[in-house]
Amino acid sequence: MTVPPPPRRRVAAAVLVAGTAVCLAVAFIDLPREGADLPGIARDAMIQALPEWHHTEVVSTLVYGTRGFDTLGETFLLLAAVVGVVVVCRGREHRRVFLQEERLGRREQEEARGPAGERSRRTRHPRTEHAEEIEQGRAGGGDGERGIGARGPVSEAAMTVVVRTGARAVLPLLTVAGAFLLLSPWAPGGGFPAGAVLSGVVLLTYAAFGYRAVRRLVRPGLLEAVEMAGAAAIIVLGFLGLVLEGSFLANWLGLGTPHTVHAGGILQVFSASEVLEVSTGLLIVVFSLLAMEREWTEEDEGGGDAERDGREEDVR
Questions:
Q1: Which residue has the higher pLDDT, 154 or 80?
Q2: CA 227 distance to own-chain centroid
Q3: CA-to-CA distance for 233 and 255, rounded, in angstroms?
Q4: Residue 114: which pLDDT band, with cuts at 50, 70 and 90?
């Protein structure tokens, strides 16, 4: 039976929601109207966008040009978060060569238990056996290479036909939207939102059709290599500006015609590098979390009696 939360939690939640609503209402009321004067920084950005960058979209010139160093920091903050998640979610390291104490110790325990150990091994949980097959590279087609999300909690291959049909209709639209955000120099966008949308395409495919539909793409080695390539491209782009123009992330490419992909000089290169960093980073984070699974041991599989017997032997 579900126990309802205590009244004080409801009161605290109501106060928090009411306070947030008041803050949002005050902020909305205080928004500048259409006839209000632009702040100085906004006016300068609009004045500089077209002559200095040949770009009519002020947001892109700010994000990847005027304050490109700040965007660089945000991008590598995401990289640091990805590294942190991977470290926390990493699985048990396999010991090789002569460092096999754990395997040898398990074998000794099975031999010492005798028939009881054989019986517990025969009655192992199916989920445990499947997890061990995945660890040994036999599951998922037996290709020997385990994907990041191969051990997720969902065992079904795909969702219902309704969901799959809806996903087939939505996936092309999301892909086009991500490409538009990346390549359109006349609308707010760029690599960060485009990377988020494109990673959502992969996640929707995984949710609708199962891991087999994305396992060739969602591999640790591939995603990490592409992410590092995007981060390296941003660093090289910045240092070339320092060498050629005397300022980090300074524009050193030709500006091209306004309203074209070539406008803005390094803006599109920066944006394209960031879409690699953001999309792969988000995929690594999500699939690393999905791959987290409780590690099974013999004690967890109903071997409590054997564990208790071992403790009694230690006491004696």
A1: 80
A2: 11
A3: 19
A4: low
